[in-house]
Amino acid sequence: MSNYLMDTYARFPVAFKSGAGVWLRDEDDLPYLDALGGIAVCILGHAHPAVTAAIVQQSQELLHTSNLFEIPLQEQLAARLCQISGMERVFFCNSGAEAVEAALKIARLHAHAREIDFPQVVVMDNSFHGRTFATLAATGNPKVHAGFEPLVPGFIRVPFNDMPSLTDIAHTNPDIVAVLVEPIQGEGGINIPKKGYLRQIRELCDQNGWLLILDEIQCGLGRSGRWFAYQHEDGVLPDVMCLAKGLANGVPMGACLARGDAAHLFTPGKHGSTFGGNLLACAAALAVLETIERDNLIARAEYLGAWMLDQFTTALSPLFGVIDIRGKGLMLGIELAIPAREIVNHALAAKVILNVTHDKVIRLLPPLILSDNEAEQIVRQVIELVTNFLSPKN
């Protein structure tokens, strides 16, 4: 560990020097199959030619001017995001946490416009929304909170995928102004709600004048087999939506999208970002969206994810110690009965990159450009890793 870096990460003893597609190479030029994609960031894999070309071209022209001036690339990107999402306006920032912060500020403005002085936002157990003070408080994980109390007030927590609990508090708290929820919980263990859950939340929000805020930071942009995970259900359209991770394929970028009244609550001076939506990030993001659409990668994610899920279910569900196998598109989780963090080291030794979230869930978030052969290799190696982990040889 470097003496000059703050000790915020438990880093693995490997450094990568190059990448291409789904593959990374370490300092000894050994190849690793990347089934994590930078935690869903490298949605087009590493060194994708379209993204590289966009970055190179833009870097030779202009990187940054600030949001004091018009930025045509930003306007193009916002228009495209609104077209594919059904939203109306976009605020650009640099990360998922910043996108959620923007959404929460919109919720506060919405509240004060309704003369609610102490607004409450409903959030979910096992959620993850970021590590800034507000997003930390919104996150449903006590481990993340530890040491940072007192938490920012204004949040009410209910169980995820439990509509009765949400309905109950609607009758008891007049200060609720919004519901913040991930359509698929990523950090919480690849938790997929029952069909109809998001639609019921949408209806409840409409009945009470609440904003529906969807955090699509990990599950959005084609990963689930739709542009956005909420599009798996009819009759669901958020008031506010947060994006980041795969948006610019590794160039830091986040976005907060809104529609209706929520799209008009920010006025000059209410919010801002020095770097948000600069020319380099917008050029990269436009290349990402164009490539996903041109190469039909959303349908590809749906097909490959379903195939991988079926393979894992057939091979692993009979094993003692496997609790559940779940997924949507190329967002897959294998839940074990015992802590599984050590399996990440076994995978690295086998030159496969994955991770374990929520202590016991093996999480796979491979790039959408995954080939059939690479998908087969991930399946084969993960099945072997899990089998050996649960039945170690003496």
Describe how the helices and strands are arranged.
Blueprint: E1 16-20, E2 23-26, E3 31-34, H1 37-40, H2 49-59, H3 72-85, E4 89-93, H4 96-113, E5 120-124, H5 133-138, H6 142-145, E6 155-158, H7 163-170, E7 176-181, H8 197-208, E8 211-215, E9 240-243, E10 254-258, H9 279-294, H10 297-316, E11 322-327, E12 332-336, H11 342-349, E13 352-353, E14 355-357, E15 361-364, H12 372-390
Parallel strand pairs: 3-13, 5-6, 5-7, 7-8, 8-9
Antiparallel strand pairs: 1-2, 2-3, 4-10, 9-10, 11-12, 12-15, 14-15
Q: Helicity, in percent?
A: 25-40%
Mean pLDDT over all positions: 97
The general outline is globular
Strand content: 15-25%
Distance, first to last CA: 33 Å
Most strands sheet: 7 strands, mixed
Helix tally equals: 12
Instruction: State the total count of DSSP E strands.
Output: 15
Question: Could you describe the 3D structure shown?
Answer:
The protein folds into two domains: 16-48 and 296-390, Aspartate Aminotransferase, domain 1 (Alpha-Beta Complex), CATH 3.90.1150; 51-294, 3-Layer(aba) Sandwich (Aspartate Aminotransferase, domain 2). Helices cover 36% and strands 17% of the residues. It is built from twelve helices and 15 strands. The strands form three sheets. Strands 4-10-9-8-7-5-6 form a seven-stranded mixed sheet, with helices on both faces. It has a four-stranded mixed sheet with strand order 1-2-3-13. A four-stranded antiparallel sheet has the order 11-12-15-14, covered by helices on one side. The longest helix is centred in the last third of the chain and has 20 residues, at 297-316. The two termini are 33 Å apart.
